[in-house]
Amino acid sequence: MDVLTENFSLYGKGFLGTVELTVYASALALVLGFLMASFRVAPVGSFRVLGTVWVTVLRNTPLTLLFFAVLLGLPRFGLVLPFQVFAVLALGCYTSAFICEVLRSGINTVPKGQGEAARSLGMNFGQTLSTVVLPQAFRSVIPPVGSTLIALAKNSAIAGAFSVTELLGTYKTLNELGYSIIWSFIWIAVGYLIITLTISAVFHVMEKRWGVAR
Questions:
Q1: In 60-180, where does DSSP find H-type helix?
Q2: Where does the record place the ABC transmembrane type-1 domain (predicted)?
Q3: Most Cβ neighbours (<10 Å): which of 36, 59, 93, 122?
Q4: How far is it, in rounded angstroms, from Cα 135 to Cα 145?
Q5: CA distance linking residue 67 with residue 72, whole number of Å
Q6: pLDDT tens figures, 74-91
């Protein structure tokens, strides 16, 4: 317990850093994922191409490489932001590709007749998607969206290698101070467990309330 009690503020700072990364990157991933899923099922060909390229490139790019591209590449184009913001961009964009595919699979579970009925009532694509298709698709994608955001929380550990304050990065300081590396990692694992179990609990409640009965 000495590792935790004597360095509680250090662990707390890293824990909060990971929580912030997870929350902000999750919000960005959900927004971009929804947008790209809309593009992928849109009747406009150029939108479908954009959505397909976005998903294909990001899903097949290692996250570490994406971090390098964002944190080291964007400043070369004059975009200088705090490293934490760059980390949120990298995590959010990367995860959005997976959110997009989850949402698209949910959209595909909605019978085509639902969309045709909405269009027969005079609804345009945006109205059909937002008021008819997505509310039904949302119920079936709650569990996979939760799993994707849990993966995002764990992927945030990569940010520590780029001078971003997060939980895993605390082991460097603890190691320099001479604390047991094993116990350092145990308490780090406990921190990640708290975060992932919290996300899991939230989506479990959402699934019980709105999910599709199986």
A1: 63-68, 83-109, 112-120, 125-128, 134-155, 170-176
A2: 15-203
A3: 36
A4: 15
A5: 8
A6: 888 888 888 899 999 999
Residue pair 95/29 in contact by the 8 Å Cβ criterion: yes
pLDDT class for 211, splitting at 50, 70, 90? Answer: low
pTM passes above 0.85:
yes
Structure token digits, residue 95: 């995860």
How far is residue 119 from each of residues 80, 133, 208, measured CA to CA in Å?
Answer: 46, 12, 31
Number of H helices, E strands in the chain: 10, 0
Q: How far apart are the first and last CA of the chain?
A: 44
Buried b (16+ CB within 10 A) or exposed e, 149-167: bbebbebbbbbbebebbbb
CA distances from 121 to 3, 113, 127 (A): 65, 12, 11
In which band, very low, low, confident or very high, does the pLDDT at 149 lie, cut at 50, 70 and 90? Answer: very high
Max CA separation in the chain (angstroms):
71
> Is the separation of the CB atoms in 92 and 25 below 8 Å?
yes
CB atoms within 10 A of CB 145: 22
What tokens appear for 213 in the block?
């009965």
Short-list 142, 154, 191, 143, CA closest to 63: 154
